[in-house]
Amino acid sequence: MAVDTVTVESVGGLNTLNPELSVIVFPNPSYGKFTIQTDATFIPQSVQILTAEGRMVESLSLGKDEILTVDAQHWAKGTFWVQFNNTNGRMCLPLVKQ
Question: Please, what is the Cα angle at 29 between 94 and 61, to 5 degrees?
Answer without folding.
Answer: 55
